[in-house]
Write a structure and sequence with these properties.
This protein is an alpha+beta fold and 331 residues long. Helix content is 28%, strand content 32%.
């Protein structure tokens, strides 16, 4: 198959339903081909064996990755007790086996409860974490064991949904956690706490912050939309995505809006963390309080784009998005 010819670049956020098998980078490459543009970033890697919500940011929206990936993640997972692997999941080599028939549902619930809250996790060797500039999975493939530090993560909820006892007991659970949490490490640590070992059998991300599996598009639908030149009909606009992920401050004063489009600040809003500033349906930027002023982390709307709106014109990026949606509705 030949490469798609590049069309006009556009900005948007696409929620993908990643299938089992390809890496997150493979999915990004598929979307690059479908969109006909190279600037595509994602808000959190999924392992090849995992499925579910992968949020991609296209065009200038790639600058929003750090703000959209900061929220919690929710996973539906299944683990086996009595089996440990070197990768802590079903893709790895078995390194230990024990009889798990002595584990009951009550004891498992106690262990899962103990794993909730703010905890320390040791990143698995088969992971993308960098130590001294080298990814751990690269060292693991070379047969090396690298000394690594624990990381603090937060497990907000960890609920047992199903338990099947036996020599190789299995359990399904739903977990909501902070970014950077390894669910397979939760399975591994639960198995260790039970004295029988454990590993992850399957993993599906059902929500990434405010983006859920119900709105995710599979790769076939994305490829088809790309062939028709209608991929934008499947995407959220940058302001739609940001409104979901961050608190929003609306600026009414056009003079203040012009200063902000030039990189200016505004009086502190008393908000913790980042917040979005919006004017006349435009995302002006992402801000953070610093003392008595709020300073821009990211200036989004350019002065010429703001001037176009004030002059009654539609900025080119918005006009292209509107045209794409019109094409999609007419197909």
């Amino acid at each position: 198959m030949g490469r798609r010819r590049r069309g006009p670049s556009w900005d948007g956020v696409l929620v993908v339903d990643k299938p089992h098998g390809p890496t997150s980078h493979d999915v990004v490459q598929s979307v690059r081909r479908a969109a006909g543009q190279s600037r595509v970033g994602h808000t959190g890697t999924l392992d090849p064996g995992a499925t579910g919500v992968l949020v991609l940011c296209l065009g200038r929206a790639a600058k929003l990755v750090q703000y959209l990936q900061a929220g919690t993640k929710t996973y539906a997972a299944r683990m086996v007790l009595g089996v440990e692997t070197d990768s802590q999941d079903a893709q790895g080599e078995v390194v230990a086996e024990r009889d798990a028939s002595g584990v009951d549902e009550h004891r498992l619930c106690e262990v899962l409860t103990a794993l909730q809250g703010e905890i320390e996790q040791l990143p698995p060797m088969v992971s993308a974490v960098r130590v001294d500039g080298r990814r751990l999975h690269e060292a693991a493939r070379a047969g090396e064991e690298v000394e690594r530090e624990t990381r603090r993560v937060v497990v907000h909820d960890l609920v047992l949904e199903d338990f099947v006892p036996g020599e190789r007991a299995e359990a399904s659970f739903l977990v909501t956690c902070s970014a950077g949490t390894y669910v397979r490490t939760l399975a591994h640590d639960a198995g260790r706490a039970l004295g029988v070992g454990g590993s992850l059998l399957s993993l599906r991300r059902v929500a990434n912050g405010p983006f859920t599996e119900t709105e995710a598009h599979d790769l076939d639908a994305i490829a088809d939309a790309g062939e028709r030149g209608e991929l934008q009909t499947l995407t959220l606009s940058p302001i739609e995505a940001v409104r979901r992920a961050l608190p929003v401050e609306v600026v009414e004063d056009p003079d203040l809006a012009r200063r902000l489009a030039q990189g200016g600040g505004l009086p502190a809003r008393g908000r913790p963390g980042n917040f979005a500033v919006v004017h006349e349906g435009l995302l002006l930027g992402i801000y953070r309080d610093a003392g008595d002023r709020a300073r821009p982390d990211l200036v989004w709307t350019r002065p010429e784009e703001l001037a176009a709106v004030e002059g009654g014109q539609v900025p080119p990026a918005q006009e292209e998005a509107r045209s794409a949606r019109t094409r999609g509705q007419g197909s």
